[in-house]
Design a protein that fits this description.
Keywords: Transducer. By secondary structure, the protein is of the alpha+beta class. 68% of the residues lie in helices and 13% in strands.
């Protein structure tokens, strides 16, 4: 298919209208068979082509004119500092002879693609870290629950110990009463009961010491019970906070996954530009 035009000058006069009518940032170059006759740079793409600049033998326009066929190529960022897609199309006169060519360059949104890919990579790393934090929060919540159960059990053990101490105190009281009765009976027996009276006194002294010790132990156990109760309250708060953190981290992870999905769609969109 030939691209017939009246003249290169008429085409050059139409380029500003064409550029303003196309909603994209592009640059357009017009050449005859030997050199560039006009160049219209874009806002963000400028190849610094000068009017009258000769065509290079490796120039896409030169190859398009030589082979009389349209060419298209993607130019990497290593050449001009940014990536763009270029076309080179031969132009013909009314008789079908090649009289020149037109080259159009449109910048590819490689920066947008790079940003989207960087966002996706950062989100992946963030999601991995949040997953680790989430696992840690879940473990913390689990350990807190275990501590809570153990603290409740400790409270029950203290109560059981208090009951045992109460039994010991009752036994000691009874022993003291028995020792008192034995002392009375020993006094009634006179000289014959003196040895038994000594034993009765020792029994009473031992029972009194036992009662005093059980009272001290009971007070200590009550203090331990108060501490375990306070620990249980604190652990309950820690467990609640840990669970809230785990839930919050999970919500954040879900939100990051949604952003990651959107960044992947953005990358797909950038690839199409």
């Amino acid at each position: 298919m030939n691209n017939n035009i009246d003249s290169l000058d008429k085409l050059v006069s139409l380029i500003p209208i064409i550029k303003s009518a196309i909603p994209a940032d592009l640059s357009i170059a017009i050449c005859d068979l030997e050199r560039f006759v006009a160049y219209f740079p874009g806002d963000t793409i400028n190849l610094n082509i000068k009017e009258g600049q000769p065509l290079h033998k490796e120039e896409p326009l030169f190859l398009a004119l030589r082979d009389n066929r349209a060419l298209r190529s993607d130019v990497p960022a290593s050449f001009y500092g940014y990536e763009f897609t270029g076309t080179a199309t031969p132009l013909h006169d009314e008789a079908g002879h090649v009289i020149g060519g037109i080259a159009v360059q449109i910048r590819r949104q490689s920066e947008l693609k790079a940003i989207a890919e960087q966002i996706a990579a950062s989100l992946s790393q963030a999601n991995e870290q949040i997953s680790s934090i989430s696992n840690g929060s879940q473990s913390l919540a689990g350990f807190s629950q275990q501590l809570l159960v153990q603290s409740h059990q400790a409270g029950k053990d203290v109560e059981n110990s208090t009951e045992v101490l109460s039994i010991i105190k009752r036994v000691a009281d009874q022993t003291n009463l028995l020792g008192l009765n034995a002392a009375i009976e020993a006094a009634h027996a006179g000289e014959k009961g003196r040895g038994f009276e000594v034993v009765a006194k020792e029994i009473r002294r031992f029972s009194k010491e036992t009662v005093a010790s059980t009272q001290d132990i009971n007070e200590t156990m009550l203090q331990i019970k108060d501490v375990t109760n306070q620990m249980a309250i604190s652990i309950e708060k820690i467990a609640a906070i840990g669970q809230e953190q785990a839930d919050s981290v999970q919500h954040t992870s879900t939100f990051i996954e949604e952003i990651k999905t959107m960044s992947e769609k953005l990358t797909e969109f950038a690839n199409k530009l």
